[in-house]
Design a protein that fits this description.
The protein is mainly α and 470 residues long. It folds into two domains: 191 residues, Growth Hormone, Chain: A (Up-down Bundle), CATH 1.20.1250; 238 residues, Growth Hormone, Chain: A, CATH 1.20.1250.20. It is built from 15 helices and no strands.
């Protein structure tokens, strides 16, 4: 069933989403600032690298475990309320840490690590699952580009300002700023008149509806996701590739501080700041280009584009660790950002073609896989860099991602050629709980027909669609 929007409904939905994206960017800034501040504060309180490592591991572990239940939670509960509650909870946690006696703060840190890991994952899964319902499926690529743009800017601002804030104002000020950003995001979202769920949704046999979700266990939630993904193996393969890509991301995140110390021992932070700034510029350029394309093109971003983007991104990060000349290094960092930003949009937009009843489970499963890849990669890379150079470690993990992406791309090309003279068959994303079957021997494409409410363009009979093409 297609719900018709009133006049100017599409533009109003995107206007509301822009406000949501601003709030998300503000809270992301606080999160990146806090990521630096909390890790340094943990070491400041305990004086132990082991305790600091345990704090970081607990945060990653909480994120991973939350992925097991996030799909069930966002399928059962109101997603907007989940996001508001997650932001509010993190704000309260920061205030409690600030007001707590110094003697208890080291103990509270472990609770803070758990809360931030849980709430960040719940909020991310809820938001990514809701975008097609907030703006309509035909606008989801533009919406994803807005979100990733905001997060890229927030990451640069958060990391760049963390040292200055902590050095001049102290840890307490950093935590208060973080709490304020979460309060702003929660209030901003709470006031927006948006719907995060398809109202005509009904429970399915797989337990993906509200009634089914209430009965299922953590294992049941994963089985629900896998049942759907079994009917859409391309999405399952993309999630697997994304998890392997997490190992590659871990390698360059662990390796950059080591490389920076080698390049500029007197001021290693300078190289890292410059690299991530150029990377962010590239990411933003990609996102704005995709948003521009999505507004003007009737073509789609599909899984082949995702695979190509993953290959280019991994190659760029490997080249960055060869310590190229300055100008070439800037171009490499820019290319890494462009490919990273594009790949994020392509991945998220493709997974959002899942029906609303299964979408929360798919993104919950994806969050679990991504956190597993990144967390496991952090541990393995840290151990390997005790024996190997940063370039060797980055080449191994990003090289593995390249090999698997090439294999995935080859399978897609062969399956497409195997269609013969029948031509591509593009299944329309379902508006009910039924899984979207893949065409026999073919690859499902992202289509331009909106699964969400009919836009005013539809009413006017216009054929222009807001779907990015590649």
């Amino acid at each position: 069933m297609r719900v018709t929007k009133p006049a100017n409904g599409a533009s109003r939905a995107m206007r509301h989403f822009r406000f949501l994206a601003v709030g998300n960017a503000v809270s992301s800034y606080g999160s990146y600032l806090n990521m630096v501040a909390l890790n340094l504060f943990a070491y400041h309180l305990t004086g132990s690298a082991l305790q600091t490592g345990l704090f970081m591991a607990l945060r990653l572990g909480a994120s991973f475990l939350t992925g097991l239940l996030a799909g069930s939670a966002v399928s059962r509960l109101d997603r907007k309320r989940v996001m508001v509650t997650a932001d509010s909870t993190q704000a309260v946690a920061m205030v409690v840490l600030v007001l707590a006696p110094v003697a208890t703060q080291s103990t509270l840190l472990y609770g803070i690590a758990t809360i931030t890991g849980v709430c960040a994952t719940l909020s991310s899964v809820a938001l990514r699952s809701s975008i097609p319902e907030i703006v309509g499926a035909d606008q989801r690529v533009r919406a994803n580009a807005l979100l990733v743009t905001g997060r890229s800017l927030a990451m640069v601002a958060g990391f760049a300002s963390a040292g200055l804030v902590i050095a001049t104002l102290g840890y307490t000020a950093a935590f208060i700023i973080n709490a304020v950003t979460f309060v702003f995001a929660a209030l901003n979202l709470a006031r927006l008149p948006i719907s995060t769920r398809r109202h005509t949704a009904t429970p399915t046999d797989g337990g993906a509806g509200e009634a089914g979700a209430k009965r299922e266990s953590l294992l049941g939630a994963q089985l629900t996701a896998l049942r759907f993904l079994k009917a859409a193996p391309i999405l399952l393969a993309m999630i697997g590739l994304r998890a392997i890509d997490g190992f590659g991301s871990a390698s360059h995140n662990v390796g950059l501080p080591v490389l920076s110390s080698t390049i500029d021992p007197g001021n290693p932070a300078a190289f890292m700041s410059q690299f991530w700034t150029v990377w962010a510029i590239g990411s933003i350029l990609a996102q704005r280009a995709v948003a521009w394309w999505a507004k003007r093109s009737d073509r789609s971003i599909n899984e082949r584009a995702f695979a190509v983007g993953a290959i280019v991104m991994s190659l760029a990060f490997i080249l960055a660790f060869t310590t190229p000349p300055l100008l070439f290094g800037i171009l490499v960092a820019l290319l890494a950002g462009i490919a990273d930003g594009f790949t994020e949009i392509a991945y998220t937009s493709r997974l959002q073609t899942a029906p609303d009843e299964q979408r929360g489970y798919v993104f919950g499963f994806s969050a679990m896989a991504e956190n597993f890849g990144f967390g496991g990669g952090m541990v393995l890379c840290a151990a390997l860099m005790e024996r190997m150079s940063p370039l060797a470690v980055v080449a191994i993990f990003h090289g593995l991602a390249i090999v698997l992406a090439l294999a995935f791309l080859a399978v897609l090309v062969l399956r497409r050629r195997g269609r013969g003279s029948e031509g591509p068959t593009e299944p329309e994303p379902a508006t009910t709980g039924a899984p979207v079957p893949e065409p026999a021997g073919g690859v499902p494409e992202v289509v331009n027909r909106p699964t969400g409410p009919t836009t005013e363009r539809d009413k006017a009979g216009m054929t222009e669609h807001s779907e990015a093409g590649t």
